[in-house]
Amino acid sequence: MERVPPTKHISFRVTFAEAAHIKAKAEAASIPVSDHIRSRMLDDENARATPRRRSKNPVKDHKALAQAIGLLGQSRISSNLNQLARAANTGSLPVTPDTEAALLEALDEIHEIRRLLIAALNLEVEP
Length: 127
Known about the structure:
Order of helices and strands: HHHHH
Strand content: under 5%
Largest sheet: none
């Protein structure tokens, strides 16, 4: 797998109209917004990304994808993670054996959902 050079995140404010204009220009060029902005700001032909290639059917296993989406729908992972993050940020997260067990159970669920998504989308990942 080819190594990607480290990057730096830069943000700036634009109006809603400006954002829509930038997005439309990027879509017209079939490139991500970040690549469009980079090419305009750097005025460099090498900064332009190649157009995105989209497969007509990127899903390898629709059944596995449905299982993963079903697990996500049944789980309260996002709500629970939000509550844990809030408690951790306020310093009120008690670290008890029950808390640890709940976190490990959530981690197992996330690993299973990840495995199903990787299989369904036919992705190759490093171990």
